[in-house]
Amino acid sequence: MVICLKRGNLAIIILLISIFLIVALFASLANLIVDIQWFNSLNYLGVFFKKFLTQLTIGVPSFVVIFILSYFYLNRMVKDYAKFAQDIEIKSVRKRFRGVVIGISIFVSFLISVFISANWWNDFLFYINSANFGVKDPIFNKDISLYMFRLPFLLDVYDLLIIIIPILIVATIIVYGLMYLSDKTRFYEISDRGGFFRAIYNKEILMIAFRQIAVLGFVFFAVLSLGYYLKAYGILYSKSGVVFGAGYTDVHVRLLFYRILMLASIVSGILFMIGAFRQKLKYIIASPVIIVAIMILSTVSQMVVQSFIVAPNELDKEKTYLKYNIDFTQKAFDLNNVEEKNYDLSGNIDKKVLDENQDTINNIRINDYRPVSQIYNQLQSIRLYYKFNDIDIDRYMINGNYRQVFISAREMNLDNLASQAKNWINMHLKYTHGYGVVMSTVNDVTATGQPDMVIKNIPPVSSTNIKITRPEIYFGELTNTYAIVNTKTGEFDYPSGDTNKENFYSGKSGIPMTFLNKLLYTIYTGNIKILLSTDITHDSRMLLFRNIKDRVQRIAPFLIYDDDPYIVVDNGKLYWMIDAYTYSGNYPYSEPYGDTGINYIRNSVKVVVDAYTGDVKYYISDKNDPIIKVYSRIFPGLFKNIDEMPKGLKAHIRYPQYMFDIQASVYKNYHMSDPQVFYNKEDSWDIAKEKFTGKIEPEESQYVIMRLPGEKTAEYVLMIPYTPATKDNMVAWMAARMDGNNYGKLVVYKFPKSTVVYGPMQIENMIDQDPNISKEMSLWDQKGSSIIRGNLLTLPIDDSMLYVEPIYIQSSNENAIPEVKRVILAYKDKIVMEDTLANALNKLFNLQAPTQPQVPQVQTNETQQELIKKANDIYNNAMNASKNGDWTDFGKNLDELGNVLNDLNNSIKK
Fold first, then answer.
1. What's the pLDDT band for 7 if we cut at 50, 70, 90?
2. d(CA 760, CA 689)
3. Of 567 and 275, the one with more pLDDT
């Protein structure tokens, strides 16, 4: 069917296509310009251009070399064709063929060079900036840097050549074949002399083709030989043995055949070249047959050796390689320097021990971060559009005491704006930032069982030495939209009574909204309102990529970033800290972690993001990591030394749970350094389990402030308990230290094998089986309320073990607040449940209850009726303040109400 188009319709179609292409071009150009402006605003323009410049560095030379080779090769074909052409016409059009050859060469060179620059740039940078590990593999005696930095690039080159050369051979055969068959008068003729038909060939053109194929064939087998040389290193990643890495069969059989294949490939290349030159088909066929035969023999030999030599004597044959796997896995996951200590459990806890460990006791966590998250959002979100995304755990010097705290940022959650308020001005000009943080100590609760908040309300009210002078949060975990600040429309700052306080951004971050930039960002966002808005002036600034995770990922995408950024208060300002990791899957003999493919990881970078300005700084926290050394060479100026981090921020760096949990998981088996014990899994561990909200699950690693055994002062540590792989009793616990010069040190305390130490799950069972506790909990867990059992904290104290579990009660009513109502303590075979930690300690260890202080008699001239009326008035004022959102006034009224009620109580006692 033929479709005819009128000229007018065709012109419209061409116009529409042209407009589409122009718009697409402008959109792509706008994206590029925006990226350049954004990176430049953060002073990381060099980081942005590094990839582009590296791609040019390898792409342009690749294009030139490939173009020259392809041009001369194709031009040679044209010359060969013209050389044997007998008529003048073909010779006259030879110049036309040159244009075709140039065009094809450019096209092929462009495709290959684009592929190379897009896929090789990272491996190329690793190759030329390689840094030594100072560790050599046990098989080839090569520094680990070969496998981590250089080998990937060499394999890239090999993979490309091993694909291109066969394609070139096939193309040569096709081109010369078509050339040969294109005109019988030039290259062959059909004759009927002698009474039968026969072909008379001009063999010279065929000989040229054979010679070229011969050279290409030899090059192919030479490259194949190089490939077997490189693949020999791959046995260090073998999965065929008892553990990851080269085993007995790999070293004694597979490696031998790789070396045989290297020589066989050279021999096959020579045979192929001889066969092609002499037109001996059997030589040509023999070349690949030799390789295939050796490969089959290699596979059979490996199976035979593995089945009949290794399998019957596996431990004896694999012992050496088991040791390699253990040693290199420990090094790759930074477990080779774990300090192991014996924890004899020979001590007894009494009043003296408790007094000596007061720092530990004062920081026993009786709040759980999950219920605390609900409480913060119920009591401190203030407005629907505020949200506490998660609860962060940190430590601060509070009024001279080292205290562990929960802290969370009050962020702006635009999704919760009323639907009629979700207009462009509100979403991008008005509601631009969150406001302040809430902080509570982990071991204190109010009389109603709620966290004792030491920083709260809007504006932030602090009962401690920690003050916040810059509470605005323009960059956070929930800031997922762009914001335009310093517009004529005042930015919403915080609610105050019936009105809202407004402010204007005073930072220098962002991109100035000049007319050209307004046009640019109109194209970039696809929203014409940016160009037409009269609220946007030349003083306005565009804040882009405000989500801190997206922000750091765009700058340095080659790192893994922790999923749990945490907010820090320092000198009145708010900062986000994010742990970042270097990683690889190329560490020889190291067992990959889970399904990630990662077998090397370091927490080498601490990232700090200013919550107000969005400035991002990367600090190197592990100077010994060769990968971060390479990245520092690749991106000069991106990373700073950790010593340059402000002292106030440096006090809050913590050993990340992500890294610790990986190490703790790997250490379950890799604490066994003896190959025989490891092989038999005689001492395999598991992460201890606990019961949370009725479900049995592995314990989370816990941040605690405690005095480690043998240490003189309490410190901030991250810890996890271990049990045997198939039992619930506890066998050890691991701690990561993080204060001062002890940062990053891992220590494992092992219990004596002759002693049974209760594990968390056994304590949970004891709680369930205690008749008094289970009865009381059953009464609470009736219709109308539910029990939440917090994390079971396993706390070592002076060669003893104390277990702590908070009990929350939550009403089934909507928006009910969970409250700590009981604290369970367990020690040896004794278990108690009381309303406070102090009472539980007193009961558990038969301590003298503290004497209640005498309530001073307060003289007042007001009658009881006057006090009651005054209390009622203050209560009504507090309720009005609550309705108006004036939480400062609400807090003052509550304080005043407390004083009046105290006066009333004293007057009654009189």
1. low
2. 6
3. 567
Q: What is the pLDDT of residues 540-549, one digit of tens each?
A: 999 999 999 9
Type of residue found at 155: L
Average pLDDT over residues 268-294: 88
Cross-strand pairs, 429: none
Residue type at position 261? L
CA distance readout (Å), 256 to 99, 261, 262, 297, 322: 50, 9, 10, 12, 21
Half-sphere exposure in the Cβ direction for 71 (13 Å, CA)? 14
- C-alpha to C-alpha distance for 746 and 741, rounded to whole angstroms: 13
* Cβ-contact 611, 580 below 8 angstroms: no
Encoded tokens for 144: 């680990």
Global pTM value = 0.86
State the sign of the Cα–Cα–Cα–Cα dihedral 100, 102, 104, 106. negative
Residue 197: its pLDDT value, please? 45
pLDDT band at 880 (very low <50, low <70, confident <90, very high): low
Amino acid at the residue 500: N
Burial class (CB within 10 angstroms; exposed 0-12, middle 13-18, buried 19+) of 128: middle
3-state secondary structure string, 96-158?
HHHHHHHHHHHHHHHHHHHHHHHHHHHHHHHHHCCCCCCCECCCCCCECHHHHHHHHHHHHHH
The percent of residues above 70 in pLDDT, for the chain, comes to: 85
Query: Contact 426/529 with Cβ under 8 angstroms?
Result: no
Q: 891: burial class by Cβ within 10 Å (0-12, 13-18, 19+)?
A: middle
The pLDDT, as a whole number, for residue 294 is 96
Q: Where does the pLDDT of residue 866 fall: very low under 50, low under 70, confident under 90, or very high at 90 and above? A: low
What pLDDT score does 906 carry? 60
Condensed to tens digits (0 to 9), the pLDDT of residues 763-797 reads 999 998 988 888 888 877 776 778 888 888 999 98
Distance CA 489, CA 466 (A): 32
Q: Is 449 exposed, middle or buried (0-12, 13-18, 19+ CB in 10 A)?
A: buried
Of 435, 413, 533, 529, nearest to 481 (Cα)? Answer: 413
Query: What SS3 class is residue 417?
Result: coil
Strands (E), 369-512: 386-388, 392-398, 401-412, 434-435, 437-445, 451-456, 461-462, 472-473, 483-485, 491-496, 499-503, 511-512
Which tokens sit at 449? 């069982």
Residue 844's closest CA among 902, 891, 801, 788?
801
Beta strands in 13-77 (DSSP E): none
AA letter at 619: Y
Q: Do strands 339-342 and 746-750 pair parallel, antiparallel, or not at all (unpaired)? A: parallel
Query: 496: how many CB neighbours lie within 10 A of its CB?
Result: 16
Q: Which residue's entry shows tokens 């490696």?
A: 255
H helix runs in 674-825, sequence order: 675-680, 760-769, 771-780
Which residues 6+ apart lie within 8 Å of 445 measured at CB?
366, 367, 451, 452, 819, 820
What is the rounded CA–CA span in Å between residue 204 and residue 198?
A: 18
Q: Quote the CA–CA distance of 803 and 86 in Å, as a whole number.
A: 99
Q: Report residue 815 as tokens.
A: 């928006």
Q: What is the DSSP letter of 578?
A: E
Mean pLDDT value of segment 330-340: 96
- Mean pLDDT calculated for residue range 369-386: 90
